[in-house]
């Protein structure tokens, strides 16, 4: 962290009005509340910042699929594991924009472009910048997730008009080591710092259901909430178990513990969009409704995530209608 920023935070730890000094114990106390109490507190705070009946829709596009050199144990796109994912090349700009136009027609307000890279190569930067410019010109918010970024790359993306950069911390600092060895937790935080310094909004969250403990979930949310600025978007993914990945066959988690994680994210980061992200295919309508009550107010919309299935658009629209919810911007 820059010295000036560190000093400002010492003098006034909450310049944005939010706490950034949560202890693990305080967070675990939230997790340990009776579920109804936790849900009530989260929904009460949620209503101070958001319309509880609105939901933000983001659509994903895998602009470069598979063949990734990293070893993230959950990921079907790592070249280290035998999965059904076929490695492809970086998509053409026009094809990506075709997807963006469809996303807009379908009611999404943000288009999230993901690449299975450790970090972008210099030769790809012009192409991804063109994608950002194209998406912006459609009147959509743009988001990219391309792996680690240095300060120069972050500045280039900002220059092209990028609104959000997604880079997940994935788990607690302690559990992270069990999941990924090819890049460190500190590398992740450094990328987030570079993104923030470039003036791009951060989208950062993680995955629940990888065999981590409640203390690990608390540690993950502690890292996010104690960043100098809360991420504008916090995707909470429930592990999608993909055959061939090391985490395939990991035990199923208690759905209530997933809902608790959403509620605690809402309590720690009151004004951030908390996204109910991967894993909705394995959730029933009642579970999703409880996630919305706990404070989730964004989803990935469209029948595919990056390589795995997501609910059909009609299924989601029917659910919103049954819950009396409407997509943001409509
Ligand atoms: N390669 C880039 C990176 O890892 O930074 C960007 C794409 S990567 C697929 C984006 C995020 O998707 C990961 O950090 C992880 O949180 C999430 N993800 C990947 N596979 C998943 C799975 N099987 N279940 C749930 N979330 C997953
Ligand atoms: C995020 O947190 N989840 C999205 C997005 N950011 C890039 C990705 C989920 C991927 C799920 C597995 C797949 O479809 O490959
Ligand atoms: Fe590569 Fe990202 Fe998958 Fe990790 S999560 S293997 S970095 S695509």
Q: What share of residues is helical? A: 40-55%
Q: Which structural class do you get from the secondary structure elements?
A: alpha/beta
Bound molecules: S-adenosylmethionine, 6-(5-methyl-2-OXO-imidazolidin-4-yl)-hexanoic acid, iron/sulfur cluster
Spatial separation of the terminal alpha carbons = 40 Å
Characterization of this structure:
It is a single chain. With 330 residues, the protein is of the alpha/beta class. Helices cover 42% and strands 14% of the residues. Strands 1, 2, 3, 4, 5, 6, 7, 8, 9 and 10 form a ten-stranded parallel beta sheet that branches. Helix 6 (151-160) links the parallel strand 3 (141-145) and strand 4. The mean pLDDT is 96. S-adenosylmethionine is lined by residues 68, 74-75, 114, 116-117, 145, 147, 167-168, 170, 207, 237, 239-240, 242, 278, 306. Residues 68, 70, 72, 75, 77-78, 116, 147 line the site of iron/sulfur cluster.
Structural features:
alpha/beta; 12 helices; binds S-adenosylmethionine; binds 6-(5-methyl-2-OXO-imidazolidin-4-yl)-hexanoic acid; 330 residues; 10 strands; ten-stranded parallel sheet; binds iron/sulfur cluster
